[in-house]
Amino acid sequence: MLRLTLTPIRSGLAYRAAIHTSSNAAGPSRPRRTPVEQSDDVDLVAPPDPVSNIRPMIYAHASRLPTLSSPYSSAEFPYAEKDAKMQDLELEWRLRKERLDVMNHKFWAATNLDFQARLANRLAALPSASDPPTDEQTALREEVMSQFYADWLAANKYKQVEWVKVWWRELWASLKMDLRLHIARRTRFFRQ
């Protein structure tokens, strides 16, 4: 039997899979996910959302977020000023990443719901098929589906192009923020 073990990659972008074999021949072999323990320093990838088909990230930063229980700001202390700026930069970067993920999920969820609704309307207009469908019915369904996809692409072309522009603009802004954070960490390391 094959056993597939999923472990999070430290960068948080994907799972690393390791396949283990065993001599148990009781049933068919199939890869299985094993539960991954949530950690404070590892980002995880969740199963795909059924509507948007996006695999959401589970960001592991809850323990690193500044606590709001203290009435004092870390910026009030002169020795902690640089740490406060670094924390603010990290927080801004994390929030930007999460905002981009949410925007992407919302766009694709709305687009997919609209697509499925319009597809259902178009297919409902077809005459009911016999069981099994005849060659004529199959050809008619294929023609209707082909026309639907062409109509869908034409109707949503500009919406998709605008979304891609927004997504790339936000992605590049996030990458710039990541670079600023990386440089700030490096210069802080060398100053110590």
Can you walk through the features of this model?
By secondary structure, the protein is mainly alpha-helical. The protein has two domains: 1-37, no CATH class; 40-191, no CATH class. It has two helices and four strands. The chain has helices at residues 81-124, 135-191, and strands spanning 2-8, 15-21, 44-45, 57-58. The strands form two sheets. Strands 1-2 form a two-stranded antiparallel sheet. The N and C termini lie far apart (52 Å). Mean pLDDT is 77; it is low at 1-25.
What is shown here, in short?
This protein has helices at 81-124, 135-191, and strands spanning 2-8, 15-21, 44-45, 57-58. The protein has 192 residues and is mainly alpha-helical.
Query: Which overall shape is indicated by the principal axes computed on the Cα atoms?
Result: elongated
Give, in order, the helices and strands.
EEEEHH
Question: Uncertain segments of ≥5 residues (pLDDT<50)?
Answer: 1-25
Q: What structural class do you assign from the helix and strand content? A: mainly alpha
Mean pLDDT: 77
Keywords: Membrane, Mitochondrion, Mitochondrion inner membrane, Transit peptide
Family: Belongs to the COA8 family.
InterPro entries: COA8 (IPR018796)
Subcellular location: Mitochondrion inner membrane
Spell out the blueprint of helices and strands:
Blueprint: E1 2-8, E2 15-21, E3 44-45, E4 57-58, H1 81-124, H2 135-191
Antiparallel strand pairs: 1-2, 3-4
Helix pairs in contact: 1-2
Keywords:
two-stranded antiparallel ribbon; elongated; mainly alpha; 4 strands; 53% helix; 2 helices; 192 residues; single chain
